[in-house]
Amino acid sequence: MLPNLPLQNIIQQVQNSLSEDIGHGDISASLVNNHVIEAKLISRETAILCGSSWFEQCFLQLDPEATFSWSASDSDELSENQQVCLIRGKAQAILTAERSAINFLQTLSAVATVTNSFIKLLSNTSIKLLDTRKTIPGLRVAQKYAVKCGGGYNHRHGLYDGVLLKENHIIAAGGIDKAIENARNRISHGLKIEIEVETLSEVEQALDAKADILLLDNMSIEMMENVIRMKKNKGSHTLLEASGNMNEDKIIGLRQLEIDFISVGAVTKNIQSIDFSLRFLEN
Amino acid sequence: MLPNLPLQNIIQQVQNSLSEDIGHGDISASLVNNHVIEAKLISRETAILCGSSWFEQCFLQLDPEATFSWSASDSDELSENQQVCLIRGKAQAILTAERSAINFLQTLSAVATVTNSFIKLLSNTSIKLLDTRKTIPGLRVAQKYAVKCGGGYNHRHGLYDGVLLKENHIIAAGGIDKAIENARNRISHGLKIEIEVETLSEVEQALDAKADILLLDNMSIEMMENVIRMKKNKGSHTLLEASGNMNEDKIIGLRQLEIDFISVGAVTKNIQSIDFSLRFLEN
Amino acid sequence: MLPNLPLQNIIQQVQNSLSEDIGHGDISASLVNNHVIEAKLISRETAILCGSSWFEQCFLQLDPEATFSWSASDSDELSENQQVCLIRGKAQAILTAERSAINFLQTLSAVATVTNSFIKLLSNTSIKLLDTRKTIPGLRVAQKYAVKCGGGYNHRHGLYDGVLLKENHIIAAGGIDKAIENARNRISHGLKIEIEVETLSEVEQALDAKADILLLDNMSIEMMENVIRMKKNKGSHTLLEASGNMNEDKIIGLRQLEIDFISVGAVTKNIQSIDFSLRFLEN
Amino acid sequence: MLPNLPLQNIIQQVQNSLSEDIGHGDISASLVNNHVIEAKLISRETAILCGSSWFEQCFLQLDPEATFSWSASDSDELSENQQVCLIRGKAQAILTAERSAINFLQTLSAVATVTNSFIKLLSNTSIKLLDTRKTIPGLRVAQKYAVKCGGGYNHRHGLYDGVLLKENHIIAAGGIDKAIENARNRISHGLKIEIEVETLSEVEQALDAKADILLLDNMSIEMMENVIRMKKNKGSHTLLEASGNMNEDKIIGLRQLEIDFISVGAVTKNIQSIDFSLRFLEN
Amino acid sequence: MLPNLPLQNIIQQVQNSLSEDIGHGDISASLVNNHVIEAKLISRETAILCGSSWFEQCFLQLDPEATFSWSASDSDELSENQQVCLIRGKAQAILTAERSAINFLQTLSAVATVTNSFIKLLSNTSIKLLDTRKTIPGLRVAQKYAVKCGGGYNHRHGLYDGVLLKENHIIAAGGIDKAIENARNRISHGLKIEIEVETLSEVEQALDAKADILLLDNMSIEMMENVIRMKKNKGSHTLLEASGNMNEDKIIGLRQLEIDFISVGAVTKNIQSIDFSLRFLEN
Amino acid sequence: MLPNLPLQNIIQQVQNSLSEDIGHGDISASLVNNHVIEAKLISRETAILCGSSWFEQCFLQLDPEATFSWSASDSDELSENQQVCLIRGKAQAILTAERSAINFLQTLSAVATVTNSFIKLLSNTSIKLLDTRKTIPGLRVAQKYAVKCGGGYNHRHGLYDGVLLKENHIIAAGGIDKAIENARNRISHGLKIEIEVETLSEVEQALDAKADILLLDNMSIEMMENVIRMKKNKGSHTLLEASGNMNEDKIIGLRQLEIDFISVGAVTKNIQSIDFSLRFLEN
Prior knowledge:
The structure is a homohexamer.
Chain A: H1 7-22, E1 36-43, E2 47-48, H2 52-60, E3 67-70, E4 77-78, E5 82-90, H3 91-121, E6 128-130, H4 140-149, E7 163-165, H5 167-173, H6 176-186, E8 193-197, H7 200-208, E9 213-217, H8 221-233, E10 239-243, H9 248-254, E11 261-263, H10 266-269, E12 276-280
Parallel strand pairs in A: 6-11, 7-8, 8-9, 9-10, 10-11
Antiparallel strand pairs in A: 1-5, 1-12, 2-4, 3-5
């Protein structure tokens, strides 16, 4: 089942994107006859498709009658040189929107594709891959959607829908237990409390204070094994999240651990654009 | 000399970015004492700095009294573990803005850094490296600024400030000469006319029609040598731009050719985020 | 400690409010000499103060040099005829902003005051009073801040930062256990899962499925006592929230129950405006 | 005949309201099958309906194909447990918009209903009930529409479409006559001049200066009878408006006076939310 | 005394104007050293100054430290080659804002100047010159301010702050008396009712129905004399406004009539731009 | 062929224009029966039509079902008393939008008409008439479209899509040759470089530095003849633009010169509104 689409966000972002490309007008568009034409979208490499609604919206804002027939949906795997979509619409609208539409597709499919490559490393485990707040400015919501299309899960969207207590909060509160108690007294009753820990002593205090989730920051595998053991000994239900410059090798190393989540900044802070092209059909 | 900063754009984009991170409020911020603190920004790898104004703006929108002392300016090369900036401001503002501020810096410095790595390949030539319209949606203006910080030059910003005639325009006009004449009769008198060509016959027609710039799309080095010869024979002043999935190897191969520009989508469509961190100072 | 202020929200809402009152210009303002004057804000009844930042912002957007000296802060109790604030600023700005400024204060203080009157009914219990999504359109964030000023706690802010499974979700999933499992697989890892239950059989299923929170909708006291007993028998840590047309009598009746929360729509959907007036001082 | 609907205002306010409820996305919506369903809106108490266009707009912005069949229009009286509207649309859209839609309806119907209860007290008189600028911030236009649905009349919408001279204007001008003359020389030729008076001496000056309307602020019934006598003696056509903390008792006391208007802040500054519920139909 | 300035309107319009001129950046600005310079504004012809706040705002939005010393205020008469203002600010800001700033000044001073030339024709009469709703799209508020700077008066600002009954309203209501009664029952109590009349019979009906103002549309002087006689005979206080393609000759012809207002579309629908220039001072 | 329409700009500007006219609501509109009516648009003088899309948009934003049948398109010449368009739509929408719609038409047709009158003076020459940045604030894009409808050409739209080096740039760079070289090294590769010159010595330097275009500022005809001679002697292809308070006489004087462009501020900074009226048809 596809995740829910952030519709208002799509409309606004496409408006901004068309606006930065079109400005006071597309100089070249009026040089072309404005009859209805067809064009096909081709994927030039294997990828997980993501961004089809942004892609459509680019054309629809210029030609509300444009139609699209897709051979794949967001989340689907595309093969090299697959015809992904056939577009039918006014020539000027298609020429003007082409670049913006592909820019969305190549960026969001990049996020879904790299997420999916990490997900495959975690197959046959119950560990979930999470994204982070390390995103491209302005694309947070769209990238978090892309992560889900790639098979990942979303950490909090921002500072407003989750609590992550760090060093500063702990110092200010005067200790891990007080920081957690303090947070529990102030936050929305539906939010869990996550706390960042770096040493076993901090882990112990956090488990005792019944933190809902521990963020194990940059720990070695050995240290995490100690954490897991300590958790079991205490009969704790606290969830464990491993974090810190994750890459393929590190993730493979974590496969066998009884942790719940691995959070990976790389799926949203880096973009290795997917290659798509648009071909106009003869008529 | 630094390029001119797109000020209004900076303010707006920082607002959007803070808004997507803060939403209805930073839950954790009020858990911390709001005294004035200091924090230092560290670069974790060598890079070309870009985005310092976006970075500052993130903090300033939450604490207008925050101050910054920089050891480097946009366009400067940073070394690994360099202290790039010392920030002084209210603790809550710094904690709340931290992620957004670094997201701008790591993204824009990525663009400047990769641009600069290509620029170095063209040293001791007169060939200029150009960006394209293959950008991250919403970041066009900021990325084009970053390309200049990295030593590159900007192709047109969008469809409104440049003319690039492609296959469809040529078909609609009934030939290369008519397309150029048609464009010259319609566009602003201060714009040059660029035309995309793929064969030597098209090159000849375009040179004869006195196109200002030829976009040599995906041509082999041999073919480009033919184009240069043809241009010389005609005594033409038309400028030549090489284009098409440029990478390090291809650019090195083009070094010795008498072309004017190489345009490279990779500098703006891919992002290999630069690693920065913010450290809070004891007091 | 005061809750964190939604600053961007304040600026925007004051702009909207001034705009709907001033339109193309305050006709009467130019009829008055624009020297600096003083005015004092008086509370005409006992109340919990809330909205001082909105109040200040109304004047500051018209006279950035205006100054304020307060005898009370948000969350404080005001007595009848207390001088709450002394304002000093340009006469035209004060006259033009007066109505908008008081409209914010009288509305938000109403929310804080009624919340606080309910809070007093729960003194010496560990039950927390929660607000709901039954708010005045456009004032959600401000009203939730006012609830906190009155001593209450915030339920989720909207559909994006909390999960509350209702009848439709349960039917769609094919049962309570499947609905909870389904949700746990899709939502952000930091969110708890709350489910609405109306019968003891539903309660049992929800406890077995380890729902984080039960919303006990319109249950009698006897039925809630059964729920609490069932929870204890199962050794469950699930939290319990009572809900449904809460008023003073019902809340008093719930005082002695071992529930965790009572959610009350009345604190935000009804407004019994607090009476404030502004008096201009002779000079 | 229904008053004219402020259409642009409706679209904007519904956008804001949905935005504050939905944020980056409705987490629960995607857990439900998105087939077309039906739901019925029930009024849980007698009321004057107001806000049906805002209600519809909430659903239409999420499902443009949604349809509505109403058993009543704005201004109509609803009985307890009346089926007011049958909605047909996509399940996810209806679930997501439900709360925002009802929030508008319960708030605006509250204004219309309380207005209407005051109107009934003035039946068989020619006295018109006016609203004031004491409104909920951001809802000015909508509330003034609701007042008309309840049978009331609108005082000025804001500072831009009416003149009301108060103490400060009179002091600045150097007397009532000069203030009125001054205003008449500056304001739009289609606006009447209203002046606030508190003593009989002020009334006399204002009548002599041919003020169009007198605002009788917090006067006793006896004093108003003197004002009316004075007006008759002078053969004046000046209109009279009674004002000041109006409630049921005071309005009943004013019934027999020859005044033209009573202005009542309570109809817009207080909200006693009307109870509506939405029931999903089996299919 | 200067009319009240529409401040929010100024900020917004200057933003729009700078945005349409600067777009993604002022290409030439960075070519100039950005030290503080001085420039003087010169009027090249006699004129009534209007727009100084818009002018200042253009520079201030780019250089908040810019300062201005004026030799004249809005409403003052300028002589040919007068130094109107000395500006001190950053060179790039002044160069970038120059054109937008002068565009406001030359347009608004044009309105004030032509208004003033008509006003002079009405000296020694009590007839007031009114503007109309025939304005340049987007400049309504600014132009109405300019009319006041030129000595004129404002008719209604728009459809929301005045009532003017025309043929269609009269037909719909079933006659002039019913249209007036109908309007009086619906509109804000502070608005006068104006009705457009073309024949003496219509004038008689409108006077009998006690219209507040008659708009005498395109009537000959003889006919207006009949209207005035009829009004006197009836002892009416209805105000009279002459209208219809007013120009210098027609206005001179109306000087001796006992009418109250002449409304003139030409003062806002035509622009004869005033010539200003900006000179940079040597340093 | 009609120039390309700036669609997004049209929608936004019509929204602004309707908003400034309608405000919180059209008071009179609800006094009229809202059945479908017809109205015809008449031109009261000969003119070049421009603005039909803005005109339609005004009605469509209030009645999306309104239809239009035009007897002329933008750029066409209208005769006196020609029926230009027949509109069919809801009575209230047509009455409310009428003034805004005609305000656009009368303003933009004024620009097209005066442009066309200048164009006729240049018939049988190859000289193109250019507009300038001397425009009405907020109407830049619309006016530049109108210039094209009148047969003119657009100079740069703003500071972002063209380079015009003036005295300050030359001083800052240290000479004309350095200024041009400096600019060529910094600007987008598709932009030509234009430089303002006032003396023959400056012309010589600019030609030698291979400026793309010379702006001949306020030169006498004799001086321009010298410039043309100098250009020929040097075999230069630099384009020549004459500028400076252009009027009919001056343009006629320039007809026989071998210059490429004449730029005329008067076509956009002055408005001599075209007279249109709307007549409602009986039914």
